[in-house]
Amino acid sequence: MLDDKGFDSWAYEYDANVAETDAKGAYPFAGYAAALDRIASLALENGPCDVLDAGFGTGVLAKRLYDAGCRVFGQDYSKTMIAIAQEKMPNALLCFGDLDEGLAQPLQGRQYDRILATYALHHFTTERKVRLLKRLQECLKPDGKILIGDIAFADEADQAACRARFASDWDEDEIYLIYDEIKEIFPGMTYEKISHCCGLFTLSR
Ligand SMILES: C[S@@+](CC[C@H](N)C(=O)[O-])C[C@H]1O[C@@H](n2cnc3c(N)ncnc32)[C@H](O)[C@@H]1O
User: Fold this and answer.
1) 81, part of any domain
2) Model confidence at 181, in pLDDT bands (50, 70, 90)?
3) What's the CA gap between 57 and 63, in Å, rounded?
4) In what helix (H) or strand (E) does residue 186 lie, and over which residues does it extend?
């Protein structure tokens, strides 16, 4: 499992690696561009708004929303990722900090229209994901939404099929969202399959 230093080393190759795997339709990034397109349109459905991106990486998604007029806030624990994203979005409030420990101080006490988490949650155990999502839910405006795009599956059988197909590349350290499991904890959560290994979840307050 990558830690903050792992993400620092990957930062400059990240966008190209992801695009290449997505273009091949291969695990783990098949569906990445489609998921980001869908999330960008859901984030902008009521026009420019206040967006918090949890684990924004190089800022690929956040930059689209920034350019569309959103106020962009974010937190990440890779200093290199933050430097790359901040250069693209000079007026965004991008904070350093481990999401496991909650939001960085400048991001607290605000409410957001949209909270995004793309390809960041599979680094968290299920227990930590749930704790983070509950904390983030409290930071939503009354009609706000959390939008999650990640390596994800409808159920265990769906995940098993992907693991069998991509056995040599499968990352046993990562913990993927499985809709069947998570909907027990968040009954209002919706799920949309984007590709054989990518799903989109929405969660309201
Ligand atoms: C695979 S990248 C995804 C980046 C971007 N959201 C995207 O869709 O391309 C995961 C990002 O989440 C960040 N991240 C992972 N775990 C984190 C944690 N516990 N706290 C803060 N950031 C974290 C990493 O530093 C990295 O920038």
Assistant:
1) yes
2) very high
3) 11
4) none
- Which protein residue has the closest C-alpha to ligand 1 atom 27? 57
97-119 pLDDT, tens digit per residue, is 999 999 999 999 999 999 999 99
Distance from the alpha carbon of residue 68 to the mean position of ligand 1, in angstroms: 22
Number of Cα atoms under 13 Å in the Cβ half of residue 54: 31
Q: pLDDT tier at 11 (50, 70, 90 boundaries)?
A: confident
pTM of the model: 0.96
Question: Which of 53, 78, 86 has most ligand 1 atoms within 8 Å of CB, for mutation?
Answer: 78
Domains in the chain: how many in total?
1
Q: CB of 164 within 8 A of CB of 152?
A: no
**Residue 153 within any structural domain of the chain:** yes
Q: Could you tell me the distance, in angstroms and rounded to a whole number, from the CA of residue 77 to the centre of ligand 1?
A: 7
Mean pLDDT of the chain: 96
Nearest ligand 1 atom to alpha carbon 119: 3
Look up residue 113 and give its amino acid. Answer: D
Which residue range is the domain that position 150 belongs to?
A: 4-12+30-204
Protein residues with CB under 6 Å of any ligand 1 atom? 4, 7, 55-57, 60-61, 75-78, 81, 98-100, 118-120, 123
How close is the Cα of 56 to the center of ligand 1, in Å?
6
CATH of the domain at 179: 3.40.50.150
Phi, psi for residue 59 in degrees, rounded to 5? 85, 20
